[in-house]
Amino acid sequence: MTILYEVHRGLYVNLTNRCPCRCTFCLRQEKNSRSLYGDLWLEREPSVSEIIDEFKKRDLSKYTEIVFCGFGEPSERLYDIFEVCDYLRTVTDLPIRINTNGMADLIHKKSTAKDFRGRIDVVSISLNTPNKERFYELTQNVFGPDAYDAMLKFAGDVKPYVGEVVLSTVATTITTDEEKECKEIADRLGVTYRIRPFEDYTEDK
Ligand code: SF4
Fold first, then answer.
1. Is 205 in the pocket of ligand 1 (CB under 6 A)?
2. Which of 59, 125, 147, 201 has its CA at 20 to 30 Å from residue 99's CA atom?
3. Shortest-distance Cα residue to atom 7 of ligand 1
4. 69 alpha carbon to ligand 1 midpoint, in Å?
5. How is the chain split among helix, strand and coil, in percent rounded to 5?
6. CATH assignment of 4-199?
7. Ligand 1 binding pocket includes 124 (Cβ within 6 Å)
8. What pLDDT, on the 0 to 100 scale, is given for residue 202?
9. Could you report the per-residue pLDDT of 33-65, keeping only the tens digit for each?
């Protein structure tokens, strides 16, 4: 089981296969967990203590950040992530990022924003598109079209509790006009907009 894996100088955490989306572009749709970073499909979910034990085997001074991002949607295990973060805060000052679909509130059926305080430095959310209906077509999420509004609300709500919130789209997947609309959405929320290069999805989905 690959629990921790390296991407450039980041140490990435793979802790679930679960996700409420079936994104049309996601390698999961082909049950293809092979990537540049190994096989991320988990036979079972590692416990919090197993994840912490994996961190204890690593020399954390080799890395520039810790990133929760794996085969599934990390916020499915948000409260386990927070337990891991509480441990990490006792052993390292490395910044901690989560790459997410922004649906934590929908998954946990409550506002989760305040619980990020002191735990996560950067929340990177896949915006995908400035269009609500298109977002639903792309993500095919179980919550329905309103998940787009919930995702944006989460982005604004979590901002006061973390260092940075990033809304991202992938270069070449939307038009430049749509990218401008995405920037306007981010500006309205007071968060960062980033166009990330098309690359292996496990790195920064
Ligand atoms: S891209 Fe992310 S949010 Fe979409 S199905 Fe894959 S894991 Fe889930």
1. yes
2. 59
3. 72
4. 10
5. 40, 20, 40
6. 3.20.20.70
7. no
8. 46
9. 566 556 899 999 999 999 999 999 999 999 999
Grade residue 122 by pLDDT with cuts at 50, 70 and 90: very high
pLDDT in tens, 103-120: 999 999 999 999 999 999
Mutate to test the pocket of ligand 1, among 19, 76, 201 (most ligand atoms within 8 A of CB): 19
Centre of ligand 1 from the C-alpha of residue 193, in Å: 19
Q: What are phi and psi of 14, to 5 degrees?
A: -110, 110
pLDDT at 130: 98
Helices H / strands E in the chain, number of each: 7, 9
Atom of ligand 1 nearest to the CA of 103: 3
The answer to whether the CB of 23 is under 6 A from ligand 1 is yes
Q: How far apart are CA 100 and CA 138, in angstroms?
A: 15
Contact present, 13 and 84 (Cβ < 8 Å) = yes
Q: Is the pLDDT of residue 181 over 80?
A: yes
Rounded Cα gap, residues 68 and 78, in angstroms = 10
Tell me the domain boundaries of the chain.
4-199
pLDDT of residue 92: 98
Distances (CA, A) of 58 to 51, 52, 66, 94, 153: 11, 10, 12, 13, 36
Average pLDDT, the chain: 93
